[in-house]
Amino acid sequence: MAIHETIKKSIPDALRAHDEVKLRTLRSLVTAMTNEVVAKKRKPDEFLTDDEALAVIKRSVNQHKDSIEQFTKASRMDLVEPEQAELAILEAYLPAMMNRDEIMTVAKAKMVELGVSGKADAGKFTGALMKELKGKADGADVKAVVDSLLS
What we know:
Elements: H1 3-16, H2 20-39, H3 50-73, H4 77-91, H5 100-114, H6 122-132, H7 139-150
Helix pairs in contact: 1-2, 2-3, 2-4, 3-4, 5-7, 6-7
C-alpha cells in the first residue's frame, strides 16, 4: 500500500483513539498531499507515488523543525511542545536516516572513487554523495561529514 494511502487510512484509527494530535497531523499531511496531487495536474482522488509522498512529508518535517527553532528563540515553549509532538508523528512515516558514522563510511568510499583531494572538489563531492544517499541521510549530516573529511 502506498504511503499516501496508508496515511489516509490512519485517520479513522486516530479518530477512534481520540488522539487529537495525531488526527490533526494526519489531516494536515493528507491535505498537503492532496494539494500536491492537484499541483501536478492530477485528479484530487488520486494518490501520490511513494517518492512524491516522502517529499511532502520531508517538507512538512522541515517546516516543523523550523517552527520549533523559531519558537525556541522566542522563548515560546507553549508552542514548541505541540510542534514536537507533531514532528514525532511525521518522522514515524519517514524511512530511518543514516547516522554520521554510516555516512562517513559511504563518503570515504565515494571520495576515493571520485578522486577528491581538497576543498576545490567539495561541491562535486557533496552533490555525488547526496545523489547516492537521497532519502537515506539528512543533508545537514552529509554536509558535516564532507566538511570534516575535507578540512
